[in-house]
Amino acid sequence: MAHVELSLSDVFAPASRTPPEQESDNVGQWSATVSHADEPCLLIDAETRVVAISASGCRLLCLGAPEDVVGLPLLEGGLRLLDFTAARGELTEQETDKIPPLLALHSGRLARGLLRVQAAGDDAPDATVDAISTPVLTDGEVAGSLTFFSQV
């Protein structure tokens, strides 16, 4: 398995392209990158709302189209998380707080883990994905998290 390390520091676009009021808004700067990425990725803000998600990320997580998910809280946008038991039960609230995008957001540290996701409908197929998340900082504070996914 490949080893991946992520580290995001405060990144500022050149002043000629970024208005001064947005220079310290890393979440906003990452939004366009995530929206146009070929890789499955997701950006959430500090309130866990989906700021941006790639089309491939929506397909992998069984979420429909990006425009259907952006602006909604991550766990209310149709994401159905299952446990790894044979019964395939939905995760409890306590367990969902430990998924990589939320763990990186709340801990301010890198997070990695496996997720089992299912599209709407009891007989819909599920997928197992590896998620690697990093907090996104704005003015030294955690303002969101950026997650990359890979199907297992």
Q: Can you walk through the features of this model?
A:
The protein is of the alpha+beta class and 152 residues long. The chain has one domain: 2-Layer Sandwich (Beta-Lactamase), CATH 3.30.450.20. The protein contains five helices and six strands, in the order αββααβααβββ. The protein has a six-stranded antiparallel beta sheet, sandwiched between helices. The longest helix is centred in the first third of the chain and has 10 residues, at 26-35. The protein starts with 25 loop residues before the first helix and ends with a strand.
What's the layout of helices and strands?
Elements: H1 26-35, E1 41-45, E2 50-53, H2 55-60, H3 66-69, E3 80-82, H4 93-96, H5 100-107, E4 111-118, E5 126-138, E6 141-151
Antiparallel strand pairs: 1-2, 1-6, 3-4, 4-5, 5-6
Produce a short descriptive summary:
The chain has 5 helices and 6 strands. It has helices at 26-35, 55-60, 66-69, 93-96, 100-107, and strands at 41-45, 50-53, 80-82, 111-118, 126-138, 141-151.
Features of this protein?
5 helices, Beta-Lactamase, 152 residues, globular
What global shape is seen? Answer: globular
H/I helix tally: 5
Report Rg.
15 Å
Q: What is the CA–CA distance across the termini?
A: 11 Å
Please indicate the count of domains.
1
What is the fold named in CATH at topology level? Answer: Beta-Lactamase
Low-confidence stretches: 11-20
User: For the record, what CATH class applies?
Assistant: Alpha Beta
Largest sheet: 6 strands, antiparallel
Q: Report the β-strand fraction as a percent range.
A: 25-35%
- How many strand units? 6
| Physical arrangement of strands within the biggest beta sheet | 2-1-6-5-4-3
Secondary structure category: alpha+beta
Corresponding CATH superfamily: PAS domain
Region (Disordered): 1-26
Protein name: PAS fold
